[in-house]
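User: Quick sanity check before I run a bigger batch. Here is a single chain. Can you write out its predicted 3D structure?
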Amino acid sequence: MSITPLLTLWTRFVAVLESLQPVAQLAARLYVAQAFFLSGLTKIRDWETTLALFNDEYHVPLLPPGLAAVMGTGGELVLPVLLALGLAGRFAALGLSVMNVVAAISLSEIAPAALQQHVFWGSLLAGLALWGPGALSVDRWLAPRLGFQR
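Assistant: Done. Predicted structure follows.
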């Protein structure tokens, strides 16, 4: 039995998977962006509660609670939009990664399921930071027009 048909089949299979990468990257961007953006909207809807949480529950290292609340909320509203569009996609992924880690360590008691969600988001963000936002992104459209090479 020749191995050539198996190699041909494998090559086609890999080509199909690679053709799905842009859609998977877009799905990852939209999934993570939605989670962070909705969190930011929740914070601005009830600013007094947000300030109370940052004073009493969230212990953000190195920042006063009021500044942490403003920076965290601003990051949750701006970075997800950039990530969803794939505009400065790696910057947005890295920024949300920092926010994700800070959020996970800022809670003195975090439920295992909540921690697992942060790990999942972190994994998606790491992939987007390492491999970029993908072909279905503003970055991919804009880069050649600005003279950037991939």
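The CA atoms of residues 18 and 28 lie 15 Å apart.

User: Great, the batch can go ahead then.
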